[in-house]
Amino acid sequence: MEILVNLDVMMAKRKISAGELAERVGITPANLSILKNNKAKAIRFSTLMALCRELQCQPGDLLEFVDGPKAAE
After folding, report:
1. What is the predicted pLDDT for the residue at 68?
2. Which of 35, 46, 50, 72 has the highest local Cβ count within 10 Å?
3. Residues in Cβ contact with 35 at an 8 Å cutoff, skipping those fewer than 6 apart
4. Alpha-carbon distance 28 to 62, whole Å?
5. Is the torsion defined by CA of 28, 33, 53, 43 positive or negative?
6. Whole-prediction pTM value?
7. CATH of the domain at 58
8. Which among 22, 63, 28, 24 has a CA at the least distance from the CA of 42?
9. How many domains is the chain built from?
């Protein structure tokens, strides 16, 4: 079981670069990369809210719960 962060998918849909999104949200490009690559252990609600605001999406568009074989991939 794990939570996947589909940030790269939403960024592609919105045609926004990692650098631009990091600047708009107020986090470092390194921290955005950690989120994007599913290496984060946690995310602050304030960061999630800022990402949703800038990407004009819902938290469920960014976060996905995976249970079973797909989680191991």
Report:
1. 73
2. 35
3. 5, 7, 43
4. 18
5. negative
6. 0.88
7. 1.10.260.40
8. 63
9. 1
